[in-house]
Amino acid sequence: MGLSQDVNNKLLAFQKNEITEHHIYSGLAKFVTAGDNRRILQEIAADELRHYHEWKKITGQEMKPDRRKVWFYLWVGKLLGITFGVKLMERGEQQAGQAYAGLAGQIPGVEAIIRDENEHEDALLAMLDEERLRYAGSVVLGLNDALVELTGALAGLTLALQDTRLIALSGSITGIAASLSMAASEYLSTRSEETARDPLRASIYTGVAYIFTVLVLILPYLLLENYFVCLALSLIAAVVIIAAFNYYISVAKDQPFLRRFWEMAGISLGVAALSFVMGYLIRITLGIEV
Question: pLDDT tens across 121-178, in order?
C-alpha cells in the first residue's frame, strides 16, 4: 500500500493492541458465569481478533500479544471484579478509538473499526451486574462511618490517654462495638427497603468493611510507642483507604474521583482534627494524667 514508516509503525502498534485485548477479553469471559455478560465479552474478543487480522492484511506481519498486559488485566478482573477490569479496558477502548480516528481516510476500513470500538463502549457500559457493586453502598457505609468515627476517636484518645496500648484497647472496643451496631442497622435498613439486595449480605458487607478499617487504623498503635507518630500513620492510612476505594468506585461505576475523594477525606480529617482538640481540652479541664 506504500505506507510511510511512521504509519506502518502505528498500524503494528494497533495490531499488537488488538491481539492483546482479544486475549484479555477471552480470559475475562471465562470468569463470568452470567450468560449475557460472557456472550458480550466473547463477542468483543472475536471483534478484536477480526481487527487484528484486518491490520495484518495491511502490514503483512504477525504480532504477538503483550503477555504482561494480559496477565495484569486478568488478575485485576479476578481480584477486583470483572466490572473493574472491564471498565479499565473500556478506557483503553476510548483511547484506541481516538487513535484510529487519526487514520480515517488514509487506511481502508478504519471507519468500520472505529464504529466497532464505539459499540464496545456502549455494550460494556450496560452489560455487567456484579454482586460486589450492588452492595457498594453498604461498603461505603461501613468504610465512611469507620473512617469518620475511628479517626475522630483515635485523635481524641491520643491526646487524652497518651499511651499507645490504652489507645489501641479503647479504639478496638469502640470500633468492634460500632461495627456490630452498623451491621445491625444496615440489616434493618435494607430489610425495610424495596430492593433486590439481601439484608444479611448487606449487613455483612458493612460490618466487614468497618472491621477492616478498624484493624488498619489501630495497627500503628500496636506496633509503635510514639503516639503522635501512630496518629499520623493512622491518618495517612485513612487517606490511602479513601483514595483506593474511591478510585475503585470511580472506575467501576463511572463516578468522579476527585470530588468524592476530597469530600470523604475532608470529613474524616476534619472530624479527627476537631476530636484532637476536644481530647486536649477535656484532658486539661478534668486535670486527668494517665
Answer: 666 656 666 666 667 767 777 777 778 778 888 877 887 778 888 888 988 888 888 8
Chain-wide mean pLDDT for the chain?
A: 79
Query: Domain containing 165: what range?
Result: 132-286
pLDDT in the model for residue 72: 92
Based on the domain organization, do 68 and 29 belong to the same domain?
Answer: yes
| Same domain, residue pair 106 and 166 | no
- Same domain flag for 49 and 97: yes
Residue 40 sits in the same domain as residue 74: yes
State the residue for C-alpha cell 472475536.
46
Same domain, 137 and 240: yes
In 3-state terms, what secondary structure has residue 4? coil
CATH, residue 123: 1.20.1260
Q: What is the rounded CA–CA span in Å between residue 254 and residue 136?
A: 13
Q: pTM for the full model?
A: 0.70
Buried b (16+ CB within 10 A) or exposed e, 206-245: bbebbbbbbebbbebbeeeeebeebbebbbebbbebbeeb
CB neighbour list of residue 101: distance below 8 Å, 6 or more residues apart: 114
Looking at residue 219, what is its pLDDT?
A: 92
pLDDT tens track for 257-272: 888 888 878 887 787 7
Q: What is the DSSP letter of 196?
A: S
CB neighbour list of residue 134: distance below 8 Å, 6 or more residues apart? 196, 197
Number of independent structural domains in the chain:
2
